[in-house]
Amino acid sequence: MARLHKNIEIWKLGYSFALKVYKLLDKIPKEESDNIIPQMRRTAVSIPLNIAEGSSKRSKKDFLNYVNTAYGSAKELDVLLSLCKDLGYIKEDVYLDYFKELDLLMGKIFLFMRNLEKETPYNFFKKWKEK
Predict the structure, then answer these.
(1) Whole-angstrom Cα distance, residue 61 to residue 126?
(2) CA-based, 20 to 30 A from 87: which of 14, 25, 60, 128?
(3) How far apart are CA 83 and CA 79, in angstroms?
(4) In CATH terms, is domain 16-130 a member of 1.20.1440.60?
(5) Where are the domains of the chain?
Protein backbone atom coordinates (compact mmCIF):
# COMPACT_ATOMS: atom_id res chain seq x y z
CA MET A 1 0.00 0.00 0.00
CA ALA A 2 2.87 2.40 0.72
CA ARG A 3 3.45 4.95 -2.00
CA LEU A 4 5.90 7.77 -2.53
CA HIS A 5 4.18 10.88 -1.19
CA LYS A 6 6.15 13.18 -3.49
CA ASN A 7 4.29 11.68 -6.45
CA ILE A 8 0.85 12.49 -5.03
CA GLU A 9 -0.67 15.67 -6.48
CA ILE A 10 -2.35 16.79 -3.26
CA TRP A 11 0.97 16.46 -1.42
CA LYS A 12 2.70 18.63 -4.03
CA LEU A 13 -0.03 21.26 -3.82
CA GLY A 14 -0.08 21.16 -0.02
CA TYR A 15 3.70 21.48 0.23
CA SER A 16 3.74 24.40 -2.21
CA PHE A 17 0.93 26.11 -0.31
CA ALA A 18 2.72 25.66 3.03
CA LEU A 19 5.75 27.46 1.60
CA LYS A 20 3.49 30.25 0.39
CA VAL A 21 1.84 30.58 3.82
CA TYR A 22 5.26 30.96 5.45
CA LYS A 23 5.91 33.97 3.21
CA LEU A 24 2.56 35.46 4.19
CA LEU A 25 3.36 35.28 7.88
CA ASP A 26 5.78 38.19 7.55
CA LYS A 27 2.74 40.41 6.93
CA ILE A 28 1.02 39.40 10.17
CA PRO A 29 1.67 41.75 13.13
CA LYS A 30 4.15 40.51 15.73
CA GLU A 31 1.47 40.74 18.44
CA GLU A 32 -0.01 37.61 16.82
CA SER A 33 3.21 35.65 17.38
CA ASP A 34 1.53 33.70 20.19
CA ASN A 35 -1.75 33.08 18.39
CA ILE A 36 -2.43 33.32 14.66
CA ILE A 37 1.15 32.97 13.38
CA PRO A 38 2.01 29.62 15.02
CA GLN A 39 -1.48 28.28 14.34
CA MET A 40 -1.15 29.13 10.62
CA ARG A 41 2.28 27.48 10.55
CA ARG A 42 0.95 24.31 12.15
CA THR A 43 -2.12 24.02 9.94
CA ALA A 44 -0.22 24.79 6.73
CA VAL A 45 2.48 22.23 7.51
CA SER A 46 -0.06 19.70 8.74
CA ILE A 47 -1.50 19.31 5.26
CA PRO A 48 1.56 17.84 3.47
CA LEU A 49 2.80 16.14 6.66
CA ASN A 50 -0.40 14.13 7.12
CA ILE A 51 -0.54 13.19 3.44
CA ALA A 52 3.09 12.02 3.61
CA GLU A 53 2.56 10.05 6.82
CA GLY A 54 -0.68 8.54 5.58
CA SER A 55 0.94 7.41 2.35
CA SER A 56 3.17 5.09 4.37
CA LYS A 57 0.27 3.25 5.97
CA ARG A 58 -0.56 -0.30 5.00
CA SER A 59 -4.26 0.14 4.37
CA LYS A 60 -6.31 2.60 2.36
CA LYS A 61 -8.53 3.11 5.38
CA ASP A 62 -5.55 4.27 7.46
CA PHE A 63 -4.38 6.50 4.62
CA LEU A 64 -7.87 7.97 4.40
CA ASN A 65 -7.75 8.93 8.09
CA TYR A 66 -4.56 10.93 7.54
CA VAL A 67 -5.89 12.59 4.38
CA ASN A 68 -9.03 13.48 6.33
CA THR A 69 -6.85 15.17 8.96
CA ALA A 70 -5.06 17.09 6.18
CA TYR A 71 -8.45 18.22 4.89
CA GLY A 72 -9.41 19.41 8.38
CA SER A 73 -6.19 21.39 8.59
CA ALA A 74 -6.98 23.03 5.25
CA LYS A 75 -10.40 24.04 6.58
CA GLU A 76 -8.74 25.47 9.68
CA LEU A 77 -6.37 27.44 7.49
CA ASP A 78 -9.35 28.78 5.57
CA VAL A 79 -10.72 30.31 8.78
CA LEU A 80 -7.33 31.71 9.75
CA LEU A 81 -6.95 33.41 6.37
CA SER A 82 -10.41 34.94 6.75
CA LEU A 83 -9.48 36.21 10.20
CA CYS A 84 -6.32 37.81 8.83
CA LYS A 85 -8.35 39.57 6.15
CA ASP A 86 -11.11 40.70 8.49
CA LEU A 87 -8.62 41.93 11.09
CA GLY A 88 -6.90 43.98 8.39
CA TYR A 89 -3.64 42.03 8.51
CA ILE A 90 -3.80 41.20 4.79
CA LYS A 91 -5.51 42.99 1.94
CA GLU A 92 -8.53 41.61 0.12
CA ASP A 93 -6.58 40.83 -3.07
CA VAL A 94 -3.92 38.91 -1.12
CA TYR A 95 -6.64 36.98 0.70
CA LEU A 96 -8.39 36.13 -2.58
CA ASP A 97 -5.14 34.89 -4.11
CA TYR A 98 -4.48 32.61 -1.14
CA PHE A 99 -8.08 31.50 -0.83
CA LYS A 100 -8.31 30.57 -4.51
CA GLU A 101 -5.28 28.32 -4.19
CA LEU A 102 -6.48 26.85 -0.89
CA ASP A 103 -9.96 26.23 -2.30
CA LEU A 104 -8.44 24.30 -5.21
CA LEU A 105 -6.35 22.27 -2.77
CA MET A 106 -9.36 21.51 -0.56
CA GLY A 107 -11.37 20.39 -3.58
CA LYS A 108 -8.62 18.04 -4.72
CA ILE A 109 -8.17 16.63 -1.22
CA PHE A 110 -11.93 16.04 -0.97
CA LEU A 111 -11.99 14.18 -4.30
CA PHE A 112 -8.95 12.16 -3.25
CA MET A 113 -10.75 11.17 -0.02
CA ARG A 114 -13.88 10.22 -1.93
CA ASN A 115 -11.84 7.98 -4.23
CA LEU A 116 -10.09 6.35 -1.27
CA GLU A 117 -13.46 5.78 0.41
CA LYS A 118 -14.70 3.94 -2.66
CA GLU A 119 -11.71 1.60 -2.43
CA THR A 120 -11.92 0.75 1.28
CA PRO A 121 -13.09 -2.71 2.32
CA TYR A 122 -15.89 -1.13 4.40
CA ASN A 123 -17.50 0.28 1.28
CA PHE A 124 -17.06 -3.01 -0.53
CA PHE A 125 -19.06 -4.82 2.14
CA LYS A 126 -21.59 -2.00 2.36
CA LYS A 127 -22.27 -2.25 -1.39
CA TRP A 128 -22.39 -6.05 -1.17
CA LYS A 129 -24.88 -5.92 1.70
CA GLU A 130 -27.16 -3.50 -0.18
CA LYS A 131 -27.53 -5.91 -3.12
Answers:
(1) 14
(2) 14
(3) 6
(4) yes
(5) 16-130
- For residue range 45-68, list pLDDT tens digits in order: 999 999 999 999 888 889 999 999
Query: In sequence order, which residues have a C-beta less than 8 Å from that of residue 99 and are 6 or more positions away?
Result: 78, 81
DSSP string, 9-73: HHHHHHHHHHHHHHHHGGGS-GGGTTTHHHHHHHHHHHHHHHHHHHHTSSSHHHHHHHHHHHHHH
What number of other Cβ atoms are within 10 A of residue 15's Cβ?
19
Q: What is the pTM of this model?
A: 0.87
Give the span between the Cα atoms of 12 and 44, in whole angstroms: 13
**CA angle at residue 76 from 19 to 117, to 5 degrees?**
95
Is the C-alpha dihedral spanning 105, 107, 109, 115 positive or negative? negative
